[in-house]
Amino acid sequence: MSKCEQCIIKQFNSLKALTKDELVRISGCKTSRKIKKGEVIFEEGEVLNGVYCVRDGICKLTKLSANGKDQIVKMVVKGDLLGQRSVVSEERSNLQATALNDMEVCFIPKSEILADLHKNPDFTFDVLKDMAKDLREADDVIVNMAQKSVRQRLAETIIYIHNSFGTNPDGTLSVLLSREDFANIVGTATESAIRVLSQFKKEGLISAVGKQIKIEDIEALKRVE
Amino acid sequence: MSKCEQCIIKQFNSLKALTKDELVRISGCKTSRKIKKGEVIFEEGEVLNGVYCVRDGICKLTKLSANGKDQIVKMVVKGDLLGQRSVVSEERSNLQATALNDMEVCFIPKSEILADLHKNPDFTFDVLKDMAKDLREADDVIVNMAQKSVRQRLAETIIYIHNSFGTNPDGTLSVLLSREDFANIVGTATESAIRVLSQFKKEGLISAVGKQIKIEDIEALKRVE
DNA sequence: ATTTAAATATGATATTTGTCATGATTTACT
DNA sequence: AGTAAATCATGACAAATATCATATTTAAAT
Questions:
Q1: Looking at the C1' of nucleotide C6, which residue has the nearest alpha carbon?
Q2: Residue B154 at interface with chain A, using a CB cutoff of 8 Å
Q3: What stretches in chain A show pLDDT beneath 70?
Q4: Do residue B89 and residue A134 have CB atoms under 8 angstroms apart?
Q5: Judgement on whether residues B33 and B72 belong to the same structural domain of the protein
């Protein structure tokens, strides 16, 4: 099994603030795990006994709403940590995590994380900074949800996925999402998401073959009202 | 001027994790300030040079959306801290803070807060815990915005204000919000908020004389669909 | 106290979004 | 390969919400 000290992934998250010794210790008790596309990593309401460091792949964080629909609250990629919020606040998870790709993650037990949080202020501060960023992003999502149309939100979602998760050589978005996933990000009915995507296609803003979506006119997409 | 070490307010926020010495030091460089109802404490995009500890009163945190409407993202009360997110991430404020009451706040310079964040892991951990709570609440707001009707959101807002900010002796909500404020919490047009409040009144769920709103049937309000 | 401005209220109507139905296409499975 | 089950697509209609217009009431200012 590879060692945390040498892992390049940690450069992208708060683990980089740990000392060599701390990393060696964590490396000794972490477990590596492969997760298949569609698999649930943890459920809403589950007690998380640790934090996941995402080495590869992408997952969605969802919350089931009263009307029985999943809302995608955030997407987590390679390099991100998963489950810090629950571990820090010692609460059950408020979200479900589901793999959108095949994934590879390392699981670090809660006790190790908490030990370092209490001992290493740099690490704690880094986790804090990360959470501050998450919080700002969440504020932005709230405002978008409250004030923008489904059309605008969907356009922005496509741009966001394009910019954050990249594209294949042919220009198509590298993360494959179902129309239902798009609806659950945007907070609309699946049919509405489908309809708006069809409109974007007709208007030449995107092209789509099945789940393969490609931005054709990003400037026009940005201008969508 | 009163001293932080003796201030009871700090029991309600992360400052309680500071040592006596740290509190004395902070006490020496804090400034107390009174803010009148309606006054802006800081604006969106402003550089915050410190954190506010709310000793009395309530304020709203808003973000201006592209369509020119303010969205109320969170409300902050006596006992809460204000501005931690921006200070931690060393970014300009992503929100505007406006007093809804006459307020009394203590301003603590950024340098002091950051010094303690780097030295006192208990304090940092406490701030982290607080932010984790804010983040969970923000996730909940996202889901509500995305999946619930204006009617439901408004009903829940009234209950939230009732439970979190309390009532006057006659049972009316102690925080006076304009109909526009309600609209900006719920993310709807002012006219829609007014209309729904009128409906609630007709249905006997609330009574309202001007801005004075009183819950008449909280169970029915909880059941609103 | 009177005037002026702002906030509240309500109707009429347009627009957006959701729901239900139904068919086509794609994917998964044996 | 062939079948079943998802997923995608689109129409028709219903419901929710926004917008515009215009009173009415309330608060603020002189």
A1: B178
A2: no
A3: 1
A4: no
A5: yes
